[in-house]
Amino acid sequence: MAAASAVSVLLVAAERNRWHRLPSLLLPPRFPGLFRTWVWRQRTMKYTTTTGRNITKVLIANRGEIACRVMRTARKLGVQSVAVYSEADRNSMHVDMADEAYSIGPAPSQQSYLSMEKIIQVAKTSAAQGMRIVRSEQEFQEQLESARREAKKSFNDDAVLIEKFVDTPRHVEVQVFGDHHGNAVYLFERDCSVQRRHQKIIEEAPAPGIKPEVRKKLGEAAVRAAKAVNYVGAGTVEFIMDSKHNFYFMEMNTRLQVEHPVTEMITGTDLVEWQLRIAAGEKIPLSQEEITLQGHAFEARIYAEDPSNNFMPGAGPLVHLSTPQADPSTRIETGVRQGDEVSVHYDPMIAKLVVWAADRQAALTKLRYSLRQYNIVGLHTNIDFLLNLSGHPEFEAGNVHTDFIPQHHKELLLSRKAAAKESLCQAALGLILKEKAMTDAFTLQAHDQFSPFSSSSGRRLNISYTRNMTLKDGKNNVAIAVTYNHDGSYSMQIEDKTFQVLGDLYSKEDCTYLKCSVNGVASKAKLIILENTIYLFSKEGSIEIDIPVPKYLSSVSSEGTQGGPLAPMTGTIEKVFVKAGDKVKVGDSLMVMIAMKMEHTIKAPKDGTIKKVFYREGAQADRHTPLVEFEEEE
Question: Is 459 noted as a catalytic residue in this protein?
Answer without folding.
Answer: no
